[in-house]
């Protein structure tokens, strides 16, 4: 731990030393309005192109950007549902320049949403890799209560309980070892023991957008980003006090087959969220919390969860910002692992003790210091820790045979500088320490120290990107592992409405403490340790283009990508037939290749009607065995339609399809009855929203309205039909 602190301190001093004395800079004060209505646009992002300087418009559409280098600059305004606006302004040293910008509503595009795919603010079309965006409106309309609920509606993504698979990168791994890095405001949310995703920590009311980066991201994000990155960005408070409240309730209907009815009354679910935020002078705050209760469509699957989130910001000067956040969640649930058999798909095995409960808690705090030294150079230093705990209880008493407490400490210092016109450098160092105390994994310590650098070069209409990251991972007394992750990318703005991109990069994932040291009985399975595990890695490449045509027969927004994921030494759970009882052991087994293509299309068929579809086709091959890669789909298809027939009323429908998984581990049938029962997925959701005023919205939401029966993982029936009534209030 001491070595990590020393290295980070030296790194921060080194980065600071290369920063020159701040230049005398100017300020821009302006207003952003709707081009047609002349009304102020609130919550839009206004930034200086090629720099880290920017601001969010307040309720009057006003913005102030400080620390701008003197000379001619490009001011860029972006907002969801609007076309990007650009305007040149000349800034004088030490003076404030006033301006008025207008922005035009877009027919089909969701707007040039700025993303953090390259760890800096930039336009989405300048990123050389596929990126999908989920907005806060998307989350509200779908009644999203957990992160996995949100990701199910993203093209190219499939969910298998605790695993997020981006373009087939992940299969089924008993809830450990995520191949997708998950962040909130740049802080890692992978647990210190299992290295898994905690879907229930998402502060729904505070999330502004979720960015999904598809393809290896280890060149900037390190271990865990083998398949991609999911980054949650929280809202910034506005000048005026704002409050948001949401409540929902409703039942699961009875299952389609009478033998699946485990109770006479309908199981119910309800939830509530509350958020308050405001900026007052140099300070701003955002506080939110919520509760979830779910009686479940299955017996022995009830849960009760409460959570809270807070973010505080202090900006003592125009160039310095200090942020701090914290969140926590507590959950007590029954622990349904797999079904009794297909005829009793909503019931646990007879041997299950129905008095057992699983208690979990997650808690995180983080701080971030950022400073703009000039209009072209900025420094960010951050530290955070994430504590996770789980334990099994029986009649309220902890069982000594199954508990774990893990701490994941993360620290990072990052420098972003515009070295010259059209040349941007992003560099930094990071340290991660995972410490675990558990009867399952014993006491273990893992450290990962990293350094990275990336350059972006703009040559006319072409943006070239190149970077590399080095990671040193060490666990306990095992030999250290050193990983190098390069990346290269190109974006060509071939025409005003056409962008071409290409990229290639390496990803890796270090084995988690759970994969190396797990010694546990999980349902019918015995899991045994394997400390000799090595890191798994990947090379991913893609070529794609994006077209926006507002003057076509109908306005369209089209994106097409062709990709290749080469996977090496994949860590897979396998039955070790050389040991007594054939326990499950995690081993480096698989060399795999996933070839595929992905198409997303948005069409405005009328001014008040839109359709959106995303289709992904993959060929997942296990090159070690010459067969299809286990637990992978070949086809993922998602479609959505919305129609506003009258002012204040909106109708929406969504359809999700996944083809039948071709291969699973057949030996699971020795432990789970009807383990091979699986079908293609056909899920239809529908929603009706009524807005009686600008401050209120009422929604009737139907999930899986056809009550289609399916499985996402072996021996687990997917959620049956649910009907919910939702109410929202905004001020």
Oligomerization:
single chain
Inertia-based shape: globular
Assign the CATH architecture of the largest domain: Beta Barrel
Q: What is the CATH topology descriptor of the largest domain?
A: Maltoporin, Chain A
Would you spell out the secondary-structure blueprint of this structure?
Blueprint: H1 2-17, E1 25-34, E2 45-48, E3 54-56, E4 62-69, E5 71-78, E6 85-91, E7 96-103, E8 131-135, H2 136-141, H3 147-151, E9 157-160, E10 163-166, E11 180-184, E12 187-188, E13 207-214, H4 218-221, E14 228-234, E15 242-251, E16 268-280, E17 283-294, E18 303-317, E19 320-333, E20 356-374, E21 377-394, E22 397-420, E23 423-438, E24 442-459, E25 462-475, E26 481-495, E27 498-509, H5 513-517, E28 520-522, E29 525-528, E30 536-549, E31 556-575, E32 584-606, E33 609-622, E34 627-628, E35 635-646, E36 649-658, E37 681-693, E38 696-703, E39 711-713, E40 716-717, E41 722-730
Parallel strand pairs: 1-7, 11-14, 29-32
Antiparallel strand pairs: 1-4, 2-3, 2-5, 5-6, 8-13, 9-10, 11-12, 13-14, 15-16, 15-41, 16-17, 17-18, 18-19, 19-20, 20-21, 21-22, 22-23, 23-24, 24-25, 25-26, 26-27, 27-30, 28-29, 30-31, 31-32, 32-33, 33-34, 33-35, 35-36, 36-37, 37-38, 38-41, 39-40
């Amino acid at each position: 731990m001491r070595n990590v602190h020393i290295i980070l301190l030296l790194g921060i001093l080194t980065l600071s030393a290369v920063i020159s004395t701040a230049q005398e800079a100017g300020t821009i004060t302006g207003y952003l309005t709707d081009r047609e209505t002349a009304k102020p646009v609130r919550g839009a992002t206004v930034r200086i192109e090629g720099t880290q300087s920017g601001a969010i418009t307040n309720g009057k559409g006003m913005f102030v950007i400080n620390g701008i280098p003197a000379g001619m600059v490009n001011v860029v305004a972006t907002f969801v549902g609007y076309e990007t606006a650009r305007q040149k302004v000349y800034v004088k040293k030490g003076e404030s320049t006033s301006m008025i910008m207008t922005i035009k509503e877009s027919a089909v595009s969701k707007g040039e949403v700025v993303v953090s795919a390259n760890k800096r603010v930039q336009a989405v079309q300048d990123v050389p890799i596929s990126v999908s965006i989920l907005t806060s409106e998307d989350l509200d309309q779908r009644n999203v209560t957990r992160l996995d609920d949100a990701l199910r509606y993203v093209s190219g993504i499939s969910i298998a309980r605790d695993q997020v698979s981006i373009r087939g990168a992940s299969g089924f791994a008993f809830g450990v070892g995520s191949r997708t890095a998950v962040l909130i405001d740049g802080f890692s949310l992978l647990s210190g023991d299992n290295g898994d995703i905690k879907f229930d920590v998402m502060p729904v009311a505070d999330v502004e957008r979720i960015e999904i980066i598809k393809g290896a991201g280890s060149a900037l994000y390190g271990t865990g980003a083998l398949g991609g990155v999911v980054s949650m960005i929280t809202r910034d408070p506005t000048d005026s006090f704002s409050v948001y409240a949401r409540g929902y309730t409703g039942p699961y209907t009875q299952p389609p087959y009478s033998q699946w009815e485990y109770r006479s009354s309908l199981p119910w679910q309800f939830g509530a969220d509350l958020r308050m935020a405001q900026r007052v002078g140099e300070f701003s705050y955002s506080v939110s919390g919520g509760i979830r209760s779910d009686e479940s469509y299955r017996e022995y699957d009830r849960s009760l969860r409460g959570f809270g989130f807070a973010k505080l910001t202090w900006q003592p000067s125009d160039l310095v910002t200090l942020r701090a956040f914290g969140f926590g969640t507590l959950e007590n649930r029954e622990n349904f692992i797999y079904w009794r058999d297909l005829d009793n798909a909503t019931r646990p095995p007879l041997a299950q003790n129905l008095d057992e409960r699983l208690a979990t808690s997650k808690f995180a705090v983080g701080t971030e210091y950022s400073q703009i030294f000039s209009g072209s150079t900025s420094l960010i230093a951050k530290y955070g820790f994430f504590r996770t705990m789980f334990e099994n209880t029986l009649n309220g008493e902890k069982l000594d045979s199954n508990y774990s407490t893990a701490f994941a400490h993360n620290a990072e210092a990052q420098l972003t500088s515009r070295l010259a016109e059209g040349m941007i450098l992003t560099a930094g160092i990071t340290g991660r320490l995972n410490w675990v105390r558990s009867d399952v994994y014993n006491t273990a310590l893992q450290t990962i120290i990293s350094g990275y650098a990336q350059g972006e070069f703009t040559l006319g209409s072409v943006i070239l990107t190149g970077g590399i990251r080095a990671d040193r991972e060490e666990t306990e007394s095992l030999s250290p592992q050193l990983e190098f992750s390069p990346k290269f990318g190109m974006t060509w703005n071939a025409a005003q409405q056409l962008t071409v991109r290409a990229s290639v990069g390496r990803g890796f994932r270090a084995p988690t403490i759970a994969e190396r040291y797990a010694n546990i009985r999980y349902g019918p399975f015995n899991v045994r340790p394997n400390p000799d595990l090595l890191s798994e890695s990947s090379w991913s490449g893609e070529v794609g283009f994006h077209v926006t045509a507002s003057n076509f027969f109908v306005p369209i927004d089209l994106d097409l990508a062709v990709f290749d994921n080469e996977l090496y030494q994949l860590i897979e759970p396998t039955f070790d037939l050389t040991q007594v009882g054939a326990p499950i052991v995690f081993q480096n087994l698989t060399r795999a290749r996933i070839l595929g293509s992905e198409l997303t299309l948005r069409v405005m068929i009328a001014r008040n009607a839109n359709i959106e579809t995303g289709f992904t086709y993959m060929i997942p091959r296990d090159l070690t065995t010459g067969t299809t890669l286990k637990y992978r789909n070949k086809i993922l298809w998602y479609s959505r339609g919305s129609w506003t027939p009258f002012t204040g009323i909106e109708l929406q429908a969504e359809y999700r399809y996944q083809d039948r998984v071709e291969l699973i581990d057949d030996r699971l049938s020795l432990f789970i009855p009807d383990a091979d029962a699986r079908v293609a997925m056909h899920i239809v959701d529908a929603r009706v929203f009524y807005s009686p005023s600008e401050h209120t919205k009422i929604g009737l939401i139907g999930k899986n309205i056809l009550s289609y029966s399916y499985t996402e993982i072996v021996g687990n029936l997917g959620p049956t039909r649910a009907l919910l009534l939702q109410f929202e209030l905004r001020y």
